[in-house]
Amino acid sequence: MNQYTIQKLRDIVGKDHVTTIPEELTCYSYDGTGQEYPPAAVAFPGSTEEICRIMQLASATPFPVVPRGAGTGMSGGALPVAGGLVLVMSRLNRILEIDRDNQVAVVEPGVINGDLRTEAGRHGLYYPPDPASMQFCTMGGNVAECAGGPSAVKYGVTRDYVLGLEAVLPDGSLIHTGVRTAKGVVGYDLTRLLVGSEGTLAIITRITVRLLPAPETRTTLLVLCRTMVEATTLVATILAHHTPCTLEYMDRTALSIVRDKLPFPFPEEAGALLLIEFDGRQDIVPIATRQLTEFLQTQPGIILNRTAANSGEADQLWAARRAISPSSFSLKPHKMSEDVVVPRSRLPQLVSCTEKLSRELGITIFTFGHAGDGNIHVNIMLDRNIPQEVQQANTAKQLLFEEVLRLGGTLSGEHGIGLTKAPYLDMELDPPTLALMRRVKNLFDPQNILNPGKIFPRQEAPEKNI
Ligand SMILES: Cc1cc2nc3c(=O)[nH]c(=O)nc-3n(C[C@H](O)[C@H](O)[C@H](O)COP(=O)(O)OP(=O)(O)OC[C@H]3O[C@@H](n4cnc5c(N)ncnc54)[C@H](O)[C@@H]3O)c2cc1C
Q1: Separation CA 152–CA 373 (nearest Å)
Q2: Counting atoms of ligand 1 from 1, which one is nearest the CA of 415?
Q3: Chain-wide mean pLDDT for the chain?
Q4: How far is CA 355 from the centre of its chain?
Q5: Best of 37, 137, 166, 337 to mutate for ligand 1, by most ligand atoms within 8 A of CB?
Q6: Which structural domains are found in the chain, ordered by start?
Protein backbone atom coordinates (compact mmCIF):
# COMPACT_ATOMS: atom_id res chain seq x y z
CA MET A 1 0.00 0.00 0.00
CA ASN A 2 1.59 3.28 -1.05
CA GLN A 3 1.26 6.75 0.49
CA TYR A 4 -1.42 7.72 -2.03
CA THR A 5 -3.63 4.81 -0.88
CA ILE A 6 -3.03 5.60 2.79
CA GLN A 7 -4.04 9.22 2.14
CA LYS A 8 -7.22 8.02 0.38
CA LEU A 9 -8.02 5.89 3.45
CA ARG A 10 -7.50 8.94 5.70
CA ASP A 11 -9.86 10.92 3.47
CA ILE A 12 -12.53 8.25 3.99
CA VAL A 13 -12.31 7.56 7.74
CA GLY A 14 -10.53 10.68 9.04
CA LYS A 15 -6.81 11.05 9.71
CA ASP A 16 -7.07 9.90 13.34
CA HIS A 17 -8.66 6.61 12.34
CA VAL A 18 -5.85 5.18 10.21
CA THR A 19 -2.45 4.12 11.50
CA THR A 20 0.77 2.93 9.91
CA ILE A 21 2.89 3.35 13.06
CA PRO A 22 4.79 0.04 13.49
CA GLU A 23 4.18 -0.16 17.29
CA GLU A 24 0.45 0.29 16.72
CA LEU A 25 0.39 -2.18 13.81
CA THR A 26 1.88 -4.79 16.17
CA CYS A 27 -1.29 -4.70 18.27
CA TYR A 28 -3.31 -5.85 15.24
CA SER A 29 -0.85 -8.41 13.90
CA TYR A 30 -1.78 -11.35 16.16
CA ASP A 31 -4.79 -13.24 17.47
CA GLY A 32 -5.57 -16.08 19.90
CA THR A 33 -3.19 -18.42 18.04
CA GLY A 34 -0.15 -16.38 19.09
CA GLN A 35 1.03 -16.15 15.46
CA GLU A 36 2.03 -12.75 14.09
CA TYR A 37 1.60 -11.15 10.65
CA PRO A 38 1.91 -7.35 10.53
CA PRO A 39 -0.47 -5.41 8.26
CA ALA A 40 0.59 -2.40 6.17
CA ALA A 41 -2.09 -0.25 7.79
CA VAL A 42 -5.00 -0.42 10.22
CA ALA A 43 -8.25 1.54 9.79
CA PHE A 44 -11.08 2.08 12.27
CA PRO A 45 -14.19 2.87 10.21
CA GLY A 46 -17.07 4.70 11.86
CA SER A 47 -19.92 3.74 9.52
CA THR A 48 -21.10 1.22 6.95
CA GLU A 49 -20.77 3.88 4.29
CA GLU A 50 -17.05 4.28 5.09
CA ILE A 51 -16.58 0.49 4.80
CA CYS A 52 -18.28 0.56 1.36
CA ARG A 53 -15.87 3.30 0.24
CA ILE A 54 -12.86 1.44 1.65
CA MET A 55 -13.84 -1.70 -0.25
CA GLN A 56 -14.32 0.30 -3.46
CA LEU A 57 -10.78 1.61 -2.99
CA ALA A 58 -9.45 -1.86 -2.12
CA SER A 59 -10.96 -3.47 -5.22
CA ALA A 60 -9.86 -0.64 -7.53
CA THR A 61 -6.25 -0.62 -6.25
CA PRO A 62 -6.29 -3.66 -5.35
CA PHE A 63 -5.07 -4.52 -1.80
CA PRO A 64 -6.05 -7.18 0.78
CA VAL A 65 -8.50 -6.31 3.57
CA VAL A 66 -8.90 -8.33 6.76
CA PRO A 67 -11.91 -7.59 8.99
CA ARG A 68 -11.12 -7.80 12.70
CA GLY A 69 -13.20 -7.80 15.87
CA ALA A 70 -11.36 -8.32 19.15
CA GLY A 71 -8.67 -10.65 17.76
CA THR A 72 -9.58 -13.53 20.09
CA GLY A 73 -9.98 -15.99 17.22
CA MET A 74 -8.30 -19.35 17.70
CA SER A 75 -7.66 -20.29 14.06
CA GLY A 76 -5.78 -17.28 12.69
CA GLY A 77 -8.82 -15.77 10.91
CA ALA A 78 -7.97 -12.14 11.70
CA LEU A 79 -4.28 -12.44 10.78
CA PRO A 80 -3.28 -10.35 7.74
CA VAL A 81 -1.17 -13.11 6.18
CA ALA A 82 -0.92 -11.25 2.86
CA GLY A 83 -0.35 -7.84 4.48
CA GLY A 84 -2.68 -5.04 3.39
CA LEU A 85 -5.31 -3.38 5.56
CA VAL A 86 -6.79 -4.58 8.84
CA LEU A 87 -10.27 -3.17 9.35
CA VAL A 88 -11.06 -2.96 13.07
CA MET A 89 -14.71 -2.79 14.12
CA SER A 90 -14.22 -1.22 17.55
CA ARG A 91 -15.95 2.09 16.65
CA LEU A 92 -19.03 0.25 15.36
CA ASN A 93 -20.07 -0.78 18.84
CA ARG A 94 -23.67 0.37 19.28
CA ILE A 95 -26.61 -1.78 20.32
CA LEU A 96 -29.06 -0.13 17.95
CA GLU A 97 -32.29 -1.69 19.13
CA ILE A 98 -33.80 -4.13 21.60
CA ASP A 99 -37.35 -4.85 20.44
CA ARG A 100 -38.91 -6.37 23.53
CA ASP A 101 -42.28 -7.22 21.99
CA ASN A 102 -40.76 -9.15 19.10
CA GLN A 103 -37.71 -10.41 21.00
CA VAL A 104 -35.20 -9.08 18.48
CA ALA A 105 -31.96 -7.08 18.84
CA VAL A 106 -30.07 -5.15 16.17
CA VAL A 107 -26.37 -4.53 16.80
CA GLU A 108 -23.26 -3.24 15.10
CA PRO A 109 -20.42 -5.76 14.61
CA GLY A 110 -18.09 -4.28 17.24
CA VAL A 111 -20.56 -4.85 20.10
CA ILE A 112 -19.05 -7.13 22.77
CA ASN A 113 -21.05 -10.34 23.20
CA GLY A 114 -21.32 -9.87 27.00
CA ASP A 115 -22.62 -6.31 26.57
CA LEU A 116 -25.51 -7.54 24.42
CA ARG A 117 -26.27 -10.21 26.99
CA THR A 118 -26.32 -7.60 29.79
CA GLU A 119 -28.45 -5.15 27.83
CA ALA A 120 -30.93 -7.87 26.79
CA GLY A 121 -31.15 -8.86 30.49
CA ARG A 122 -32.26 -5.32 31.38
CA HIS A 123 -35.31 -5.96 29.16
CA GLY A 124 -35.99 -9.41 30.68
CA LEU A 125 -34.50 -11.05 27.57
CA TYR A 126 -31.63 -13.41 26.91
CA TYR A 127 -29.00 -13.80 24.16
CA PRO A 128 -27.76 -17.39 24.71
CA PRO A 129 -24.51 -17.82 22.67
CA ASP A 130 -21.81 -17.51 25.33
CA PRO A 131 -18.25 -18.15 24.12
CA ALA A 132 -15.84 -18.34 27.05
CA SER A 133 -14.34 -15.14 25.58
CA MET A 134 -17.71 -13.36 25.89
CA GLN A 135 -16.35 -10.48 27.98
CA PHE A 136 -14.15 -9.30 25.09
CA CYS A 137 -15.07 -10.96 21.75
CA THR A 138 -17.34 -9.11 19.30
CA MET A 139 -20.65 -9.98 17.70
CA GLY A 140 -19.07 -9.57 14.23
CA GLY A 141 -16.39 -12.10 15.14
CA ASN A 142 -19.05 -14.41 16.62
CA VAL A 143 -21.08 -14.31 13.40
CA ALA A 144 -18.00 -14.76 11.22
CA GLU A 145 -16.93 -17.84 13.23
CA CYS A 146 -20.42 -19.09 14.18
CA ALA A 147 -19.26 -19.02 17.79
CA GLY A 148 -20.65 -21.46 20.29
CA GLY A 149 -20.22 -21.75 24.02
CA PRO A 150 -21.22 -23.80 27.06
CA SER A 151 -24.93 -23.10 26.59
CA ALA A 152 -24.99 -24.53 23.04
CA VAL A 153 -25.97 -27.95 24.39
CA LYS A 154 -29.45 -26.57 25.13
CA TYR A 155 -29.69 -23.37 23.08
CA GLY A 156 -27.56 -23.91 19.97
CA VAL A 157 -24.87 -21.65 18.49
CA THR A 158 -24.68 -18.18 16.90
CA ARG A 159 -26.20 -19.42 13.63
CA ASP A 160 -29.40 -20.33 15.52
CA TYR A 161 -29.92 -16.69 16.60
CA VAL A 162 -28.92 -14.64 13.53
CA LEU A 163 -32.06 -13.59 11.66
CA GLY A 164 -30.54 -11.14 9.21
CA LEU A 165 -27.38 -9.30 8.24
CA GLU A 166 -26.21 -6.15 6.52
CA ALA A 167 -22.85 -6.73 4.84
CA VAL A 168 -20.41 -5.06 2.45
CA LEU A 169 -19.14 -7.13 -0.47
CA PRO A 170 -15.51 -6.96 -1.63
CA ASP A 171 -16.50 -4.59 -4.48
CA GLY A 172 -18.05 -2.16 -1.98
CA SER A 173 -21.72 -2.94 -2.63
CA LEU A 174 -24.08 -3.30 0.29
CA ILE A 175 -26.33 -6.33 0.75
CA HIS A 176 -29.12 -7.19 3.18
CA THR A 177 -29.88 -10.81 3.98
CA GLY A 178 -32.59 -12.53 6.01
CA VAL A 179 -35.47 -11.05 7.96
CA ARG A 180 -36.40 -9.73 11.39
CA THR A 181 -39.47 -11.92 11.61
CA ALA A 182 -39.72 -15.37 13.20
CA LYS A 183 -39.90 -17.02 9.76
CA GLY A 184 -38.75 -16.15 6.23
CA VAL A 185 -37.86 -18.18 3.13
CA VAL A 186 -37.48 -15.57 0.39
CA GLY A 187 -34.61 -16.51 -1.92
CA TYR A 188 -31.45 -18.39 -1.00
CA ASP A 189 -30.44 -18.35 2.66
CA LEU A 190 -27.48 -15.99 2.34
CA THR A 191 -27.57 -15.33 6.09
CA ARG A 192 -26.58 -18.94 6.75
CA LEU A 193 -23.87 -18.70 4.10
CA LEU A 194 -22.33 -15.61 5.71
CA VAL A 195 -22.53 -17.02 9.25
CA GLY A 196 -19.27 -18.92 9.68
CA SER A 197 -17.72 -17.49 6.49
CA GLU A 198 -14.71 -16.27 8.53
CA GLY A 199 -14.52 -12.82 6.98
CA THR A 200 -13.79 -14.24 3.52
CA LEU A 201 -17.05 -13.38 1.70
CA ALA A 202 -18.29 -10.05 3.08
CA ILE A 203 -17.78 -7.57 5.92
CA ILE A 204 -20.68 -7.78 8.37
CA THR A 205 -21.84 -4.31 9.36
CA ARG A 206 -25.17 -4.93 11.11
CA ILE A 207 -26.62 -8.01 12.81
CA THR A 208 -30.23 -8.81 13.69
CA VAL A 209 -30.56 -11.55 16.31
CA ARG A 210 -33.47 -13.19 18.02
CA LEU A 211 -33.68 -13.18 21.80
CA LEU A 212 -35.42 -15.44 24.32
CA PRO A 213 -37.13 -14.73 27.62
CA ALA A 214 -34.44 -14.64 30.32
CA PRO A 215 -34.31 -17.82 32.46
CA GLU A 216 -35.62 -17.17 35.98
CA THR A 217 -33.05 -19.23 37.80
CA ARG A 218 -30.04 -21.48 37.42
CA THR A 219 -28.33 -24.27 39.40
CA THR A 220 -24.78 -25.53 39.01
CA LEU A 221 -23.61 -29.07 39.71
CA LEU A 222 -20.09 -30.34 39.82
CA VAL A 223 -19.30 -33.99 39.28
CA LEU A 224 -15.77 -35.26 39.89
CA CYS A 225 -14.91 -38.58 38.29
CA ARG A 226 -12.01 -40.96 38.74
CA THR A 227 -11.09 -41.14 35.04
CA MET A 228 -11.57 -39.23 31.80
CA VAL A 229 -13.26 -42.24 30.23
CA GLU A 230 -15.77 -42.55 33.10
CA ALA A 231 -16.57 -38.82 32.91
CA THR A 232 -17.04 -38.75 29.15
CA THR A 233 -19.09 -41.98 29.19
CA LEU A 234 -21.52 -40.18 31.50
CA VAL A 235 -22.16 -37.41 28.97
CA ALA A 236 -24.37 -39.33 26.54
CA THR A 237 -26.00 -41.17 29.46
CA ILE A 238 -26.97 -37.88 31.11
CA LEU A 239 -28.29 -36.32 27.91
CA ALA A 240 -30.45 -39.34 27.19
CA HIS A 241 -32.68 -38.38 30.15
CA HIS A 242 -31.92 -34.76 31.14
CA THR A 243 -31.78 -31.34 29.46
CA PRO A 244 -29.05 -29.24 31.09
CA CYS A 245 -28.11 -25.86 29.61
CA THR A 246 -24.42 -26.68 30.12
CA LEU A 247 -22.40 -29.86 30.21
CA GLU A 248 -18.74 -28.92 30.32
CA TYR A 249 -15.73 -31.18 30.81
CA MET A 250 -12.23 -30.63 32.19
CA ASP A 251 -9.54 -33.27 32.37
CA ARG A 252 -7.06 -33.62 35.22
CA THR A 253 -4.43 -31.31 33.68
CA ALA A 254 -7.04 -28.63 32.98
CA LEU A 255 -8.19 -28.85 36.61
CA SER A 256 -4.65 -28.72 37.94
CA ILE A 257 -3.69 -25.53 36.06
CA VAL A 258 -6.66 -23.66 37.58
CA ARG A 259 -6.51 -25.39 41.00
CA ASP A 260 -5.96 -22.07 42.83
CA LYS A 261 -9.26 -20.77 41.38
CA LEU A 262 -11.39 -23.81 42.29
CA PRO A 263 -13.86 -23.44 45.19
CA PHE A 264 -12.81 -26.83 46.61
CA PRO A 265 -9.49 -28.54 47.39
CA PHE A 266 -8.17 -30.39 44.36
CA PRO A 267 -8.55 -34.14 45.15
CA GLU A 268 -5.51 -36.11 44.03
CA GLU A 269 -7.65 -39.01 42.76
CA ALA A 270 -9.74 -36.76 40.46
CA GLY A 271 -9.28 -37.62 36.77
CA ALA A 272 -11.93 -35.28 35.31
CA LEU A 273 -14.75 -32.91 36.16
CA LEU A 274 -18.17 -32.33 34.63
CA LEU A 275 -19.72 -28.91 35.18
CA ILE A 276 -23.47 -29.14 34.65
CA GLU A 277 -26.12 -26.43 34.81
CA PHE A 278 -29.88 -26.24 34.58
CA ASP A 279 -31.70 -23.00 33.87
CA GLY A 280 -35.34 -22.04 33.40
CA ARG A 281 -38.38 -21.57 35.58
CA GLN A 282 -38.19 -21.36 39.38
CA ASP A 283 -40.62 -24.27 39.81
CA ILE A 284 -38.89 -26.61 37.31
CA VAL A 285 -35.13 -26.14 37.82
CA PRO A 286 -34.93 -27.55 41.41
CA ILE A 287 -36.82 -30.65 40.29
CA ALA A 288 -34.53 -31.21 37.29
CA THR A 289 -31.49 -30.72 39.52
CA ARG A 290 -32.72 -33.21 42.11
CA GLN A 291 -33.54 -35.80 39.44
CA LEU A 292 -30.04 -35.57 37.96
CA THR A 293 -28.37 -35.70 41.39
CA GLU A 294 -30.29 -38.88 42.24
CA PHE A 295 -29.49 -40.37 38.86
CA LEU A 296 -25.77 -39.67 39.29
CA GLN A 297 -25.77 -41.49 42.64
CA THR A 298 -26.43 -44.68 40.67
CA GLN A 299 -23.53 -44.16 38.24
CA PRO A 300 -20.02 -45.66 38.53
CA GLY A 301 -16.73 -43.75 38.86
CA ILE A 302 -18.04 -40.63 40.62
CA ILE A 303 -15.93 -39.30 43.52
CA LEU A 304 -17.96 -36.18 44.26
CA ASN A 305 -21.40 -35.05 43.09
CA ARG A 306 -22.78 -31.87 44.53
CA THR A 307 -24.69 -28.69 43.76
CA ALA A 308 -22.88 -25.36 44.16
CA ALA A 309 -23.93 -23.90 47.51
CA ASN A 310 -24.61 -20.43 46.14
CA SER A 311 -24.07 -18.17 43.13
CA GLY A 312 -20.64 -17.14 44.50
CA GLU A 313 -19.42 -20.73 44.35
CA ALA A 314 -20.92 -21.20 40.87
CA ASP A 315 -19.22 -17.99 39.69
CA GLN A 316 -15.91 -19.29 41.06
CA LEU A 317 -16.32 -22.53 39.11
CA TRP A 318 -17.02 -20.57 35.94
CA ALA A 319 -14.07 -18.26 36.55
CA ALA A 320 -11.89 -21.39 36.83
CA ARG A 321 -13.41 -22.82 33.63
CA ARG A 322 -12.79 -19.57 31.71
CA ALA A 323 -9.23 -19.36 33.02
CA ILE A 324 -8.17 -22.71 31.54
CA SER A 325 -7.18 -21.38 28.12
CA PRO A 326 -5.04 -18.44 29.36
CA SER A 327 -3.59 -20.55 32.23
CA SER A 328 -2.44 -23.27 29.84
CA PHE A 329 0.69 -21.25 29.02
CA SER A 330 2.03 -22.17 32.44
CA LEU A 331 2.66 -25.61 30.87
CA LYS A 332 4.49 -24.52 27.68
CA PRO A 333 4.93 -21.21 25.82
CA HIS A 334 2.82 -22.24 22.80
CA LYS A 335 -0.11 -24.45 21.96
CA MET A 336 -2.14 -25.83 19.12
CA SER A 337 -5.73 -25.43 20.22
CA GLU A 338 -8.03 -27.78 18.32
CA ASP A 339 -11.81 -27.78 18.72
CA VAL A 340 -12.81 -31.11 17.24
CA VAL A 341 -16.30 -32.60 17.55
CA VAL A 342 -17.39 -36.23 17.70
CA PRO A 343 -20.78 -37.82 18.29
CA ARG A 344 -21.23 -37.64 22.09
CA SER A 345 -21.27 -41.41 22.55
CA ARG A 346 -17.75 -41.51 21.08
CA LEU A 347 -16.20 -39.02 23.51
CA PRO A 348 -14.53 -41.84 25.51
CA GLN A 349 -12.69 -42.98 22.36
CA LEU A 350 -11.64 -39.39 21.63
CA VAL A 351 -10.15 -38.76 25.08
CA SER A 352 -8.48 -42.19 25.04
CA CYS A 353 -6.90 -41.21 21.73
CA THR A 354 -5.53 -37.93 23.13
CA GLU A 355 -4.09 -39.77 26.17
CA LYS A 356 -2.43 -42.29 23.87
CA LEU A 357 -0.99 -39.59 21.58
CA SER A 358 0.37 -37.70 24.57
CA ARG A 359 2.02 -40.84 25.97
CA GLU A 360 3.44 -42.17 22.70
CA LEU A 361 4.69 -38.82 21.34
CA GLY A 362 6.00 -37.61 24.72
CA ILE A 363 4.16 -34.25 24.64
CA THR A 364 1.58 -32.65 26.91
CA ILE A 365 -1.94 -32.80 25.52
CA PHE A 366 -4.89 -31.83 27.68
CA THR A 367 -8.60 -31.61 27.01
CA PHE A 368 -11.58 -29.60 28.18
CA GLY A 369 -14.68 -28.09 26.61
CA HIS A 370 -18.25 -28.45 25.57
CA ALA A 371 -18.69 -32.19 26.14
CA GLY A 372 -22.47 -31.94 25.83
CA ASP A 373 -21.95 -31.07 22.15
CA GLY A 374 -19.18 -33.64 21.70
CA ASN A 375 -16.97 -30.55 21.15
CA ILE A 376 -13.68 -31.01 22.98
CA HIS A 377 -10.81 -28.53 23.01
CA VAL A 378 -7.67 -30.56 22.50
CA ASN A 379 -4.64 -28.51 23.54
CA ILE A 380 -1.33 -29.71 22.18
CA MET A 381 1.35 -27.89 24.17
CA LEU A 382 4.77 -27.09 22.71
CA ASP A 383 7.67 -24.73 22.43
CA ARG A 384 7.80 -23.52 18.83
CA ASN A 385 11.51 -22.83 19.19
CA ILE A 386 12.21 -26.55 19.60
CA PRO A 387 11.94 -28.25 16.16
CA GLN A 388 11.43 -31.71 17.70
CA GLU A 389 8.38 -30.45 19.66
CA VAL A 390 6.94 -28.77 16.56
CA GLN A 391 7.30 -32.01 14.64
CA GLN A 392 5.69 -34.10 17.41
CA ALA A 393 2.85 -31.59 17.78
CA ASN A 394 2.16 -31.64 14.03
CA THR A 395 2.12 -35.44 14.11
CA ALA A 396 -0.32 -35.37 17.05
CA LYS A 397 -2.60 -32.95 15.17
CA GLN A 398 -2.63 -35.09 12.02
CA LEU A 399 -3.33 -38.31 13.98
CA LEU A 400 -5.99 -36.59 16.07
CA PHE A 401 -7.82 -35.36 12.96
CA GLU A 402 -7.67 -38.84 11.40
CA GLU A 403 -9.20 -40.36 14.53
CA VAL A 404 -11.91 -37.67 14.77
CA LEU A 405 -13.02 -38.30 11.19
CA ARG A 406 -12.89 -42.07 11.77
CA LEU A 407 -15.22 -41.56 14.75
CA GLY A 408 -17.70 -39.70 12.51
CA GLY A 409 -16.73 -36.24 13.74
CA THR A 410 -15.63 -32.91 12.28
CA LEU A 411 -12.41 -30.89 12.49
CA SER A 412 -13.89 -27.70 13.96
CA GLY A 413 -16.99 -27.08 16.05
CA GLU A 414 -16.65 -23.33 16.61
CA HIS A 415 -13.16 -21.90 16.02
CA GLY A 416 -13.28 -22.17 12.23
CA ILE A 417 -10.68 -23.26 9.71
CA GLY A 418 -8.87 -19.93 9.25
CA LEU A 419 -5.16 -20.36 8.76
CA THR A 420 -4.26 -23.15 11.14
CA LYS A 421 -6.62 -25.81 9.79
CA ALA A 422 -6.60 -24.82 6.10
CA PRO A 423 -4.03 -27.50 5.11
CA TYR A 424 -6.30 -30.17 6.60
CA LEU A 425 -9.62 -29.13 5.01
CA ASP A 426 -9.45 -31.76 2.28
CA MET A 427 -9.25 -34.48 4.91
CA GLU A 428 -12.94 -33.78 5.63
CA LEU A 429 -14.38 -32.27 2.42
CA ASP A 430 -14.50 -34.23 -0.82
CA PRO A 431 -13.11 -32.61 -4.01
CA PRO A 432 -16.46 -31.60 -5.61
CA THR A 433 -17.64 -29.98 -2.35
CA LEU A 434 -14.36 -28.13 -1.92
CA ALA A 435 -14.44 -27.01 -5.57
CA LEU A 436 -17.98 -25.64 -5.12
CA MET A 437 -16.86 -23.72 -2.02
CA ARG A 438 -13.95 -22.23 -3.99
CA ARG A 439 -16.42 -21.13 -6.67
CA VAL A 440 -18.62 -19.45 -4.03
CA LYS A 441 -15.57 -17.55 -2.74
CA ASN A 442 -14.67 -16.57 -6.30
CA LEU A 443 -18.20 -15.32 -6.99
CA PHE A 444 -18.16 -13.03 -3.94
CA ASP A 445 -14.53 -12.04 -4.25
CA PRO A 446 -13.10 -12.59 -7.76
CA GLN A 447 -9.90 -10.66 -6.94
CA ASN A 448 -9.36 -12.56 -3.66
CA ILE A 449 -8.87 -9.35 -1.67
CA LEU A 450 -11.07 -10.17 1.35
CA ASN A 451 -9.14 -12.10 3.99
CA PRO A 452 -6.97 -14.01 1.49
CA GLY A 453 -5.10 -17.15 2.55
CA LYS A 454 -7.87 -18.44 4.82
CA ILE A 455 -10.00 -21.61 4.86
CA PHE A 456 -8.81 -23.13 1.57
CA PRO A 457 -5.72 -25.31 1.31
CA ARG A 458 -3.16 -23.76 -1.02
CA GLN A 459 -3.41 -25.16 -4.54
CA GLU A 460 0.24 -26.14 -4.41
CA ALA A 461 1.38 -28.85 -1.97
CA PRO A 462 0.41 -27.51 1.45
CA GLU A 463 2.96 -27.30 4.21
CA LYS A 464 1.29 -28.82 7.23
CA ASN A 465 2.46 -26.86 10.20
CA ILE A 466 1.09 -24.56 12.86
C1 LIG B 1 -9.96 -17.49 26.16
C2 LIG B 1 -10.75 -17.78 24.90
C3 LIG B 1 -11.90 -18.52 24.99
C4 LIG B 1 -12.66 -18.80 23.84
N5 LIG B 1 -13.82 -19.52 23.96
C6 LIG B 1 -14.59 -19.74 22.88
C7 LIG B 1 -15.82 -20.47 23.00
O8 LIG B 1 -16.22 -20.92 24.08
N9 LIG B 1 -16.56 -20.64 21.88
C10 LIG B 1 -16.16 -20.14 20.67
O11 LIG B 1 -16.89 -20.31 19.69
N12 LIG B 1 -15.00 -19.47 20.53
C13 LIG B 1 -14.21 -19.24 21.60
N14 LIG B 1 -13.04 -18.54 21.46
C15 LIG B 1 -12.63 -18.06 20.12
C16 LIG B 1 -13.08 -16.62 19.78
O17 LIG B 1 -13.32 -15.86 20.95
C18 LIG B 1 -14.30 -16.63 18.88
O19 LIG B 1 -14.00 -17.23 17.64
C20 LIG B 1 -14.90 -15.24 18.61
O21 LIG B 1 -16.07 -15.39 17.87
C22 LIG B 1 -13.94 -14.32 17.86
O23 LIG B 1 -14.43 -13.00 17.97
P24 LIG B 1 -13.46 -11.75 17.75
O25 LIG B 1 -14.28 -10.52 17.87
O26 LIG B 1 -12.30 -11.83 18.65
O27 LIG B 1 -13.03 -11.98 16.24
P28 LIG B 1 -11.57 -11.92 15.56
O29 LIG B 1 -10.65 -12.88 16.21
O30 LIG B 1 -11.13 -10.51 15.48
O31 LIG B 1 -11.93 -12.43 14.12
C32 LIG B 1 -12.34 -13.77 13.92
C33 LIG B 1 -12.77 -13.92 12.46
O34 LIG B 1 -13.91 -13.14 12.23
C35 LIG B 1 -13.70 -12.26 11.12
N36 LIG B 1 -14.45 -11.04 11.42
C37 LIG B 1 -14.41 -10.30 12.55
N38 LIG B 1 -15.29 -9.29 12.47
C39 LIG B 1 -15.90 -9.39 11.24
C40 LIG B 1 -16.89 -8.65 10.55
N41 LIG B 1 -17.47 -7.58 11.10
N42 LIG B 1 -17.25 -9.06 9.32
C43 LIG B 1 -16.69 -10.15 8.75
N44 LIG B 1 -15.75 -10.89 9.36
C45 LIG B 1 -15.36 -10.51 10.59
C46 LIG B 1 -12.19 -12.08 11.06
O47 LIG B 1 -11.77 -11.72 9.76
C48 LIG B 1 -11.72 -13.46 11.46
O49 LIG B 1 -11.73 -14.32 10.36
C50 LIG B 1 -12.24 -18.28 22.58
C51 LIG B 1 -11.08 -17.52 22.50
C52 LIG B 1 -10.34 -17.26 23.64
C53 LIG B 1 -9.09 -16.42 23.51
Answers
A1: 7
A2: 19
A3: 95
A4: 24
A5: 137
A6: 95-213 (3.30.465.10), 217-406 (3.40.462.10)
